[in-house]
TrEMBL record:
Name the record gives this protein: Aldo/keto reductase
GO cellular component, one term: cytosol
Keywords annotated in UniProt: NADP, Oxidoreductase
Xref: Gene3D superfamilies: NADP-dependent oxidoreductase domain (3.20.20.100)
A molecular-function term among this protein's GO annotations: oxidoreductase activity
UniProt cross-references to SUPFAM superfamilies, sorted A to Z: NAD(P)-linked oxidoreductase (SSF51430)
Keyword Zinc-finger in annotation: no
Domain NADP-dependent oxidoreductase, first and last residues per copy: 16-315
Similarity section: Belongs to the shaker potassium channel beta subunit family.
Keyword Ubl conjugation: no
């Protein structure tokens, strides 16, 4: 069963393995399979579920809401996000303006079938809306009881500091950051993690298995596995491309002895690795089959000895991306249309 951790400087506990439906619900897998995956997560002790209004253009929220019907709401932590374009893509169907936030939270609650979300996250930083406007809107969402806590995703260290400062002035809690983080993608370690520790924010990390690359199923010189993320033309193949280099894939294969020594699969090793970081509250895992959920949960509570953590660093060497500037570099400079 899964362990639980406090989220940021708050009294909220979440499951350190959090179920996410970014690339699956409403797009890659059928609704009955998605529901089976959610029920497998619940059976494994997962209580935290992460989604976003943009996933499958709002369909993922609907699928998650349907899958959670009948569950005791107080026993769940439901997270969603706002920023990216949704709906028909009108001029105000995007960003972190007061208008878009207020309309988006109402839409998300309706689709999720709940009166409130436990965590409402700014999916990216909006360069075209004053941060004061965004934070005031979030404060009002919290005061209206529509969200209990506020978080952000892929914000820089300075943006997190300023967001927390304004949140405190306005009387609500900004407690989480949701960045990409894995053995191969460590760009948060130099700046985002220290800033987060400084202001009482913790990480809920996405893609801890590097979109499946760290499972070891992609072998240099061999055909791509049928039905894998790298063959998905609905967005998966594009997202995984940065890791699909022979030098990366070769190094990943060398991690097998480490996983074997710990009695873990490669995927479990990858999830357990991100949870060794004491600023990480949870690793988000997705699934296209219920059994994947049960397997990923086995990473909860695993302690990787320091010598094996060092071995992982030696094996991966210079294929690891560490540049802290990649957070800002990958952020939208203007609102997407």
């Amino acid at each position: 069963m899964v362990n639980y951790r406090y989220l940021g400087n708050s009294g909220l506990k979440i499951s350190e393995i959090t179920y996410g439906n970014w690339l699956t619900h409403g797009s890659q897998v059928e609704n009955d399979i998605a529901t089976a995956c959610v029920h497998a997560a619940l059976d494994a002790g997962i209580t935290s579920f992460d989604t976003a209004d943009v996933y499958a253009n709002t369909k993922a929220e609907q699928v998650l809401g349907d899958a959670l019907k009948g569950q005791r709401r107080e026993s769940l932590e439901i997270f969603t996000k706002v920023y990216w374009p949704t709906g028909p893509g009108g001029p105000n169907d995007v960003g972190l303006s007061r208008k878009h936030i207020m309309e988006s939270i109402n839409g998300s609650l309706k689709r999720l079938g709940t009166d409130y979300v436990d965590l409402y996250q700014a999916h990216r930083y909006d360069t075209e809306t004053p941060l004061e406007e965004t934070m005031q809107a979030f404060a009002d969402v919290v005061r209206q009881g529509k969200a209990l806590y506020i978080g952000v995703s892929e914000w820089t260290a300075d943006q997190i500091r300023e967001g927390v400062k304004l949140a405190r002035e306005l009387g609500f809690q900004l407690i989480s950051s949701q960045p990409q983080y894995s053995m191969l993608w460590r760009v948060i370690e130099e700046e985002v993690v220290p800033a987060s520790k400084e202001v009482g924010v913790s990480q809920i990390v996405w893609s801890p298995i590097a979109q499946g690359v760290l499972t070891g199923k992609y072998v240099p010189g061999q055909p791509l596995p049928e039905g894998s993320r790298a063959t998905d033309d609905k967005g998966g193949a594009r997202m995984i491309q940065r890791f699909m280099r022979d030098d990366v894939l070769e190094r990943v294969q060398l991690l097998r002895p480490v996983a074997d020594e710990l009695g873990l699969t490669m995927a479990q090793l990858a999830v357990a690795w991100v949870l060794q970081n004491d600023n990480v509250a949870a690793a988000i895992v997705g699934a296209s089959r219920p059994e994947q959920v049960a397997e990923n949960v086995k990473a909860s509570g695993v302690e990787i000895p320091a010598e094996l953590m060092a071995t992982i660093d030696e094996v991966l060497g210079d294929v690891v991306e560490r540049d802290p500037g990649r957070t800002a570099e990958n952020a939208p400079k203007t609102r997407p249309v």
